[in-house]
Write a sequence for this structure.
């Protein structure tokens, strides 16, 4: 799935990878800190840091200090990031359509439930 998404994102000519696209997608649903992004994506702190640094340099995300904890930095998607997501939507949708070809809506819903359970089992709940 990641390979298919990466190939389709290359066609979008936005210059983002599938991992960067996932971070942007998450941030379209609300601001997060890097730790939260790591927990959601199951990526290491170093990997998230690298992804975020690229997105910051490309001005696709912004970083602001948390009002609750001044040591915590909150990441938000920028207007440029939203524009990039809109540019890549059809390319990502093609990957999803290809991956779920032949599945009924009910099967896709069931698959999503199972995948969510698997991911939740893998998350290190402290």
């Amino acid at each position: 799935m990641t390979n298919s998404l990466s190939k389709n994102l290359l066609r979008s000519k936005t210059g983002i990878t599938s991992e960067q696209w996932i971070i942007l997608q998450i941030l379209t649903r609300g601001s997060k800190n890097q730790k939260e992004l790591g927990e959601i994506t199951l990526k290491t702190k170093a990997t998230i840091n690298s992804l975020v640094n690229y997105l910051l340099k490309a001005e696709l995300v912004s970083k602001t200090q948390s009002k609750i904890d001044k040591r915590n930095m909150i990441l938000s998607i920028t207007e440029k990031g939203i524009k990039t997501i809109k540019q890549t939507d059809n390319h990502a949708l093609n990957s999803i359509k290809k991956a779920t070809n032949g599945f009924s809506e009910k099967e896709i819903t069931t698959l999503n439930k199972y995948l969510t359970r698997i991911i939740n089992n893998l998350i290190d709940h402290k």
